[in-house]
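lol ok so funny story. i was supposed to be doing the assay writeup but got distracted and ended up predicting the structure for this chain instead. priorities right. anyway since i did it might as well share w the group, maybe its usefull for someone
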Amino acid sequence: MRRSEKTGLVVTCCAGAVLACSPALPAAPGTDGDSIFEQRCKSCHDPAIERAPGRAELAARPRADIVRSLTSGIMAPMAEGLSAEQIQSVAAYLTPGSAPETPAEQRPAALSAPTGVDPKCQVNAPIKAGKNDWPSAGFDDASTRYQPNPGLKASDVPKLKLKWAFAMSGGGQPTVIGDWLFTTNRSGKFYALDAKTGCVHWVVNDAVSRTTPVVVRASMSPSGWATFVAVASRVVRAFDAQTGAEIWKSQVLEDHQSSVMSGSPVIAGERIFVPISSIEEVTAMRKDYVCCTFRGSLAALDLKSGKLLWKTYMISAPLQTIHREGKDLQGPAGAAVWAAPTVDRKRGLVYAVTGDSYTDADTDGADAVVALDMKTGGVKWKNQVTAHDNFVIGCGPNSAGNCPTTVGPDYDFGASPILFTPMRGKQVLLAGQKSGIAYGFDPDSGALLWKTAVGAGSALGGIEWGIAADREHLFVPVSDILRLRVAGPPPSGDMAGKPGISALDPATGSIVWQTPAPVAPCHYANDKDKPSSCVRAQSAAPGAMPGIVFSGTMDGWFRAYDAKSGKIVWEYSTTAQSYDTVNGVNGQPGGSIDGMGPTIAGGMVYTMSGFNGAARVGSNGVNVLLAFAVDR
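and the output, tada:
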């Protein structure tokens, strides 16, 4: 998936390609952008194949977006051997109407940042925890994405108004502790902001990431509070949450050239659990590449020191040689862990979900739900729900090279599983797959309890980036974006695209209600004066509070639904206006809501608009973090 960066990476490949260059990698001639494009990129982009954007779409993007993709994003493996000057020449050729970057923006350590300032807070009061906090990507150990004490009532939600906006490049979902908000982005700036106003407490300038920071009380931190983030260099970094001073940096957790950090770390006790994914599905498009060797994994680090305690690969079988049409390939490979894991302290388990396989070599680790021992990393149980889902970007029914003999549907898991605790009865482990199917498993054994189709499913979802659950319901957004773009019956022949959101009974999987994504006005900034290319796919993770579930769509609409009925009680178009941001960016446009979901804390609701997600739809290069509060 790629989860994004299917990861921004990193968008991540499972989910979509940013700039898919040709499989062949001849030496690039000089710095001639058009000839480099002709040799390396044209076969995928002119005309466009699969999820790769076409020339017209690339021309509408900011030049920095192209450079970022080729330098440190999903297309970096395809740009191997190109100099910084050559990458700039390709970007200039593709975006003749876009302004060139400044030298600072050409550096991988600070990919590109919005023009503006970082307004410093006049007062930096100590961090104080509150009952309204949202401390990690999934909110709690169980990854419910449910805020029981939001600081506002369901009846207040229709009165939500925009309070402030903050521009950043490739921003992620924030966490909130008291009046402090923490958020990463792909420009390398890791911010601590004032949650009420958006002023800057501190900023770290070299932490390229799109994962959600996790914030906890920690004795090894001078202030007593620490924040942890997984960064693009495949390490985890720990900072004092009050000052931004670095406490430790882990070793490189994965040395595979295509590995990425897309899922957010999770903390339980004195351990940090870190998911590891990859974009080898894209790298394997190169004809000179020997596919495939990456294996997804989950790593456990010591909270105080960052020391690696264990690392467990989702594929345990040894590599073997696969003879294919005169070329020796390798496998099994794949099973990337795109999403944050889920912790079960009672059973001493941590649950991970995996992506697809890359090769013909059989494996039971791909498209699976896996339970691991928190202390040792030993696999307690594993349930593979889709076998033989062997997938490489750009492969079709008659493809050769690194392509699997039979190309799978690309049905990764990209949403963190939820350990649901009912008011009565047994716990259920809930999961959602890009196939459009939601599942319920027995957390003790991994046995399948139920499965329910809520969407048609596709390589971009189905159920894409997240699910949520309150005390009664499982909330499942559906993307089905490819079904919105292709006429005719779906591949399965039995379900049309159904973008929207559903509520399910977690015990049985029965559908309680379904609300289709409305057809609503939208215009992406990059469309300029052309007809809108907006799409109403609902792929981003949702967020819930008592009586309400929040969910955004790729056409930039952010909505609140009645949790019992599915009725829309509030909505806001993030593309209907531009924003003069707290950090001095005037006229900043909104865009797609994709990937990471909302954060609900301290009486406010936060969402990121314009995110460059797996579908590469409605992105702006520079995103805008929007903060809403009740207009009293």
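The longest helix spans residues 84-94. The two ends are 42 Å apart (CA to CA).
back to the writeup now i swear
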